[in-house]
Amino acid sequence: MSGHTVPADFSGHMLDLDEDEDLEVFSKKTSSTLDGDGNLVPNSPSSLVNQYRLDEDEDEDEDEEEQQDVNTIDLFITVDNPESHVTAIETFIMYRVLTKTTRSQFDCSEYEVRRRYQDFLWLRSRLEENHPTLIVHPLPEKFVMKSMVERFNDDFIETRRNALDRFLKKISEHPVLSFSEHLQVFLTEPELTSHKKQGPGFLSRMGDTVRGLANSVRGLKSRPDEFTQMQEYVEDFSNKICSLDKVTQRIIREQKEYLDELKQYSPTYTHWAGSERDLAEPLKGVASCVEHCGKETEEQTQHLSEVLVPVLHEYVLCAETLRGVMRRRDNLQAEFEAKNEALVSRKTDPELLQDEVDGLADRVELANNALKGDWVRWRGSMRTDLRSALISTAEKNVEHYEKCLAVWESFLLSQRQEPSEQKDGDNVS
After folding, report:
1. pLDDT tens across 256-278, in order?
2. Where are the beta strands (DSSP E) in 11-109?
3. Where are the alpha helices (DSSP H) in 17-153?
4. For 348, how many CA atoms within 13 A lie in the half-sphere containing its CB?
5. What are the C-alpha distances in Å from 176 to residues 45, 165, 229, 370?
6. What's the pLDDT tens digit per position in 211-230?
7. Is the pTM of this model over 0.85?
8. Rg value, the chain, Cα
């Protein structure tokens, strides 16, 4: 009776881990035009952005034509209308979840239910339990206690609503998870209490945890190279995305401090103009420029907070999710290796153990194949999300600096003296 080897055929599935591809945004060549003297000059930022948009539209049209018939969307989910609920024990937010679908597995085409954050946690835990090596999109973190007021302010509620909406949309787009019976229950059942009781009990969860710890302590003897590369990629990706997330949030804090200073800066020029008759016009002009630029900077900062930061932080959480998936795959392989060693040494009933080893071999193979397929899908989705956020941020930056430039250029033009005015001024002096 011979032992088993790890049942994974990785030929033809080697990962493309070129990290330059992952966060590459602008790959289009910039163009130039000829000025009146025949000299080559670069296009303006606006024309570059417009050119990039045209090129992007052409590429997207081609992709859409190819995939229009393949990727037909038949499940639409929206999270909206948050409502605060107060009981004698707790205060919490309930969100409306609207579903529209043409799938035959649903009895109706439209559903409306209300769910709280804990219900989303239940759904995600069930998806992970039933599909341990699929990448289940992360939920926003559970609130960290700072103040009860902050927990229920409008910004916090809207940020969480948007993240919950993103979570369900990602699940609805997944080729496997979107057909989960637990997702269907979540979307259609008015109450989830009875369904929550049907999950694995405390002792069962503790048993899984103990086995997982034992397998992690035991370690792997022969992790396939493909999954080692995945692990290295995840760690590198996590370091980069965490750094970007922290720096971006620090930039936002500093810009808000800068805006507070600008709000004091502009009135200073205005007050000064009241006591300097000869300088009144340029002083008022500078005050106006500072005020306008402050408004543009505020919009730019708001854009960073609403567009870039949520995506960056979402993928910080995704990195943690990927670590969990890799850990569960490793634990399953470690359990297989341990059973296989016991079978080889024949320390226990060989026939019974053979059945267990065969079952684990099948589970490892299924887990490996599931992770490999989901890995490709996840990386494509990640690139699309980050690319969109980075392009949107770049466009907003161009818009911001062009508007500020126009404001200051207008001020300079207003302060220019015509030659005749300059000459009259010199004669008077």
Report:
1. 999 999 999 999 999 999 998 88
2. 32-34, 40-42, 75-86, 91-101
3. 19-22, 45-67, 117-130, 148-151
4. 12
5. 43, 19, 24, 10
6. 555 545 456 778 899 999 99
7. no
8. 30
